[in-house]
Design goal:
The chain is α+β, with helices and mostly antiparallel strands and 209 residues long. The protein folds into two domains: 96 residues, no CATH class; 86 residues, no CATH class. The protein has six helices and ten strands. The strands form three sheets. The chain has a four-stranded antiparallel sheet, with no helix packed on it. A four-stranded mixed sheet has the order 2-8-7-5, covered by helices on one side. The longest helix has 27 residues. The C terminus is likely disordered.
């Protein structure tokens, strides 16, 4: 059967388990597999951008709730101002003044971005970041990972299921297939982003170019 939707995935997990005593538990196993994928994957479908309006005399802006890692923060000025990242300690050491101005640096404190200098006007900041995978559920029938790599979801969920059943042999079998699927996704993403040429690294941002 095809595995292209959340409903079809739940059915496939139940079919592979072939047990009546786990009815209704497949959503839990899928969620756990998804949590593992979130820790290991950074695909193009997870790359997002959003804007935030800075308020004069307020150094803080809330981060996107689905953020995993920031790629870049910039002000949409003319020309564009790309902000430098500093640790919380370093940014206060670098910009100790309580004065305001156009921000040139940022840090992350809890669930907020911290700008220095403190904005002197209502700038628009654009945030490029890596987000969590769009979680499957009744309101989200599919996502890019399920559409392109259903085996990752299936084997990941089955590994969690057999872990719950304390069946180490079957858990190991599906965990190995899950690991192979994750490795294949990473290879597929690298080819799509960088082609077949040699990779080079930017010393400015630490990103692969």
């Amino acid at each position: 059967m095809a595995i292209t939707t959340y409903t079809e995935l739940k059915t496939a997990v139940d079919n592979w388990l072939a047990r009546t005593d786990l009815s209704g538990r497949s959503p839990e196993f899928i969620t756990l597999a998804e949590a593992r994928m979130n820790r290991e994957l950074e695909t193009r479908s997870q790359e997002k951008r959003t804007t935030a309006t800075l308020v004069a005399s307020d150094a803080y802006v809330s981060l996107p709730t689905d953020l995993r890692r920031i790629r870049e923060v910039r002000l949409n000025t003319s020309p564009i101002t790309v902000l430098n990242y500093h640790s919380p300690h370093a940014i206060d050491r670098e910009y100790p003044s309580a004065g305001t101005g156009k921000p040139v640096a940022y840090s992350i404190i809890g669930t907020e971005i911290y700008f220095r200098p403190t904005p002197d006007s209502g700038y628009t900041a654009e945030i490029m970041y890596v987000a969590d995978i769009d979680a499957l559920g009744d309101a989200t029938a599919t996502n890019n990972i399920l559409a392109r790599h259903p085996d990752a979801y299936l084997h990941g969920a089955l590994a969690e299921a057999f872990g719950y059943l304390m069946d180490d042999q079957r858990r190991g079998f599906h965990d190995a297939h899950f690991g192979q699927a994750i490795a294949a996704i990473k290879t597929d993403e690298d080819k799509a982003k960088y082609g077949s040429g040699a990779l080079t690294y930017s010393t400015d941002y630490g990103e692969v170019r």
